[in-house]
Amino acid sequence: MQTIRTDVVVVGLGAMGAAITDQLARRGVAVVGVDRFAPPHDRGSSHGETRITRQAVGEGAAYVPFVLASHRHWRELESACGESLFEACGAVVIAGAAGRGSHHGKQDFFATTVATAERFAIEHRCLERDELVARFPQFAGMHRDQHAYFEPGGGYLRPERCIAAQLARAERASATLLLDTKVERIDNRSGGVRVTTDKAVIEADRAVVAAGAWATDLLGAPFERLLTVRRQTLHWFGLEADARFPADSPVHIWMHGAGDADYFYGFPPLPGERSVKVATEQDRVATHADQLDRQVAATESQALFDAHLRGRLAGVSSRVVDAAACLYTVTPDQGFILDDHPTMPGVFVVSACSGHGFKHSAGIGQAVAERLCGAESEFDLAPFALERFDT
Ligand SMILES: Cc1cc2nc3c(=O)[nH]c(=O)nc-3n(C[C@H](O)[C@H](O)[C@H](O)COP(=O)(O)OP(=O)(O)OC[C@H]3O[C@@H](n4cnc5c(N)ncnc54)[C@H](O)[C@@H]3O)c2cc1C
């Protein structure tokens, strides 16, 4: 079997691995990126046309530097690839009476969003129901005692295009990409790591594992206990003939009850389309990435429509246009793990980022590249360290 020698090997070229490979290659680091499929693909956590991005993230202030850097990176990347990657159509967060509602495990998600916007001087407005509906009639189902936050600089990303553009730029900067190549094991060797794939052996000083929902297969303890993989579903519903979605409609997160499952998020119709994508999250059933049921039953779409959209999102019919299954990989506190592996020297772990990672991925690429290069960094990775868990 061929042996390849490099400085850094990146395992997994999805949202995180593509960004890290791009950042390392453009710093002049010899990098080999490996993926079992040919990203962008629809087998992991980064497919489905769109991902929400918002700067005042209610998950906490520690994430803000990543998303702010990412917004800069997406614009640079657009210039480099000549494609539209980031639509800054604005982002709306709706919470129940007195700001009630939980999202990604944060009971104070709405209040944190507003506080974070104020702390980081992120442009935003808090709106009453009538103000919001006058501007965006699709939110007609909002109650008068609910609260809305509007961030004009939020919007949506095109995940498949972002990944493809970063991988193309990494290759132009001399990265080697081994696609349709499965990493089978990672071992320590004197002064570095040995990564065995089904096609070649790679010897490197460092390895980054960004293998998404498959990460535990490679990482062992304590990750198999800390990372849980969950099937999620995305649904596209057709618009009613008289639907009124203004051309500048935002993405939204709508919390209508107290629990994490009492919410849905959605996107405006994409240019030229007469449907909207919406989804919620489930945190009850775990799976393994290789056993994912990729078929989404019509009853699942109907259940989502009945529980979340009916009577809330105006102008959207229950006619299902499309549906897809996707994977979340979550930690116990629904935060990220960005840290050295505790027992595998030379291995840096980038967890699959618990269902809210895409918006941060370009910034995480920069942060991880700076960490590996020993460069000064604007990012503090301490809140994402493994030691916060009882390992
Ligand atoms: C339905 C859904 C909606 C989401 N919505 C949002 C949103 O609106 N906003 C937001 O910010 N985030 C969102 N997220 C989260 C975000 O998309 C993820 O955090 C992010 O895409 C994860 O990227 P990743 O690189 O960790 O995983 P992936 O993109 O899945 O990449 C992992 C890669 O590793 C490869 N791999 C795995 N094992 C091996 C191996 N042994 N050898 C070689 N390669 C391997 C896989 O093939 C894959 O390409 C959502 C996620 C889902 C599923």
Protein topology:
Blueprint: E1 2-11, H1 15-26, E2 31-34, E3 51-53, H2 64-81, E4 86-87, E5 91-95, H3 109-119, E6 125-127, H4 129-135, E7 147-151, E8 155-157, H5 159-172, E9 176-178, E10 183-189, E11 192-197, E12 200-209, H6 215-219, H7 223-226, E13 228-239, E14 251-255, E15 263-266, E16 275-279, H8 298-309, E17 316-330, E18 338-340, E19 347-350, H9 361-373
Parallel strand pairs: 1-2, 1-12, 2-9, 5-14, 12-19
Antiparallel strand pairs: 3-8, 4-8, 5-7, 6-7, 10-11, 11-12, 13-16, 13-17, 14-15, 15-16, 18-19
This protein binds flavin-adenine dinucleotide.
Cofactor: FAD
Pfam families: DAO
Domain FAD dependent oxidoreductase: 7-371
Structure description:
The protein has two domains: 2-46 and 159-225 and 333-388, FAD/NAD(P)-binding domain (3-Layer(bba) Sandwich), CATH 3.50.50; 91-151 and 228-330, D-Amino Acid Oxidase, Chain A, domain 2. α1 (15-26) links the parallel β1 (2-11) and β2 (31-34). The protein is α+β, with helices and mostly antiparallel strands. 25% of the residues lie in helices and 28% in strands. The chain contains nine helices and 19 strands. The strands form three sheets. Strands 1, 2, 9, 10, 11, 12, 18 and 19 form an eight-stranded mixed β-sheet that branches. Strands 6-7-5-14-15-16-13-17 form an eight-stranded mixed β-sheet. The mean pLDDT is 96. α1 crosses α9 (361-373), α2 (64-81) packs across α5 and α2 (64-81) packs across α9 (361-373). The chain is globular, with a radius of gyration of 21 Å. Bound molecules: flavin-adenine dinucleotide. Residues 11-17, 34-37, 39, 43-46, 48, 51-52, 182-183, 210-212, 214, 218, 232, 234, 279, 326-328, 352-353, 355-359 line the site of flavin-adenine dinucleotide. Keywords: FAD, Flavoprotein, Oxidoreductase.
